[in-house]
Amino acid sequence: MAQEDGELDSLVRKRIRALRVAQGWSLEELAARANVSQSTLSRIENGQRRLALDQLVTLARALDTSLDQLVETASDDVVSSPMIDATHSLMRWPIKADPGMTVVRQRMTDPPPDSPSRMRAHPGREWLVVLSGTAVLLLGNRRLRIETNQAAEFPTMLPHAIGAEGGPCEILGIFDRDARRGHQSGESARGTGGDDRPS
Questions:
Q1: CB atoms closer than 10 angstroms to residue 73
Q2: Model confidence over 101-118: pLDDT tens digits?
């Protein structure tokens, strides 16, 4: 137990320093933001001062994070495998830290639907990046070309559909809980037709 406490103590100290450096702040700048002395902050980072709960709360706020995130320990299940949906040529990964979020990777070969009636609208937000090829996003009355390494983010209450242009394309999308539910209900309602891609 003492070894685990020591490992957590060391992890928290490293995390404080790493977050400070990532912000580009000196010891003096973070100390001022957290209302502690520079020498106290230096001793906290270097393990020469005991970590006190009140100081951790103050430092977490100054670093724009939460106490939970500051003291969070590493999870054993860091690596996860996708759930494969061969029917729709896609892979899904749930995001464990936020069960409402899902990451989807999909290969598309069909162009977007030519009929506005086949576009979907549902609550939520989506973000996607084109990994290869060119995708076409129909969004309301707009037709947007998304090239390799370009991303799109949009509210899914706008009628939308996506497809490939000029050959296959591959996308990686992030869906919030509402967007994911909208696509799952759309897939179950339509079966396995060509417009069942996750947006």
A1: 10
A2: 889 999 999 999 888 888
